[in-house]
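Incident review: delayed structure delivery

Summary: a single-chain prediction request sat in the queue longer than the usual turnaround. Root cause was a stuck worker, restarted by the on-call engineer. No data loss occurred. The affected request and its eventual output are reproduced below so the record is complete for anyone auditing the incident later.

Affected input:
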Amino acid sequence: MRSPWLVLGAGFAVGLFVAGTPAAGEPAADARRGRVVFEAKRCARCHLPRGRPGVGPALEDLRRPQGAFELAGRLWNHAPAMFTVFKQEDLTWPEISAEEMADLMAYLNADPKRDPAPDPFKGQATLVRKGCLKCHSLKREGARVGPDLAARRADYEMAAVWAARMWVHTPRMAQKALELGILYPRFVDDETANLVGFLKSAAK
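Output delivered after worker restart:
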């Protein structure tokens, strides 16, 4: 099997020049609609204003200046614990569309312009370091548990689309990682933006 560091070929070099920033093409978002989404999806049930007892982080900790891909990474990290609470409470995992995710991001004060320009080289390192290819393939290199990461370029165009897709994916992935004895990956700082920048280039 070829090394995952070599799968991109000439297409990756071209992708470096046309990948763009995560802010490009983001859908219009409305913080007021995002507040409705926050309440409708039961987020407000656990995330209460500071000083009031809640299950998750305080609302003020969620609503802070941040990048959109940064928030997407935080949602990814948070999903397994939230899924556990939902199972304990016998609640249905909330579905969130890309449009709803964009509004929710606006309400949580996430702005794509705050994300740094993606570094695909760092994103490639993140892909390997986080063990993504233990479940996924990239251009048919890697595992076959999950879908090929280069198969859906549209998922990488906007932070809200990526976050919505991952929101649907994370409960199943967390369960599968547990079954396979694989450490569930978590993302910090600019790792999500870099990873998506790399995958966007690879998908070209």
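Verification: The beta strands are 66-67, 110-111, 137-138, 141-142.
Action items: add queue-age alerting; document worker restart procedure.
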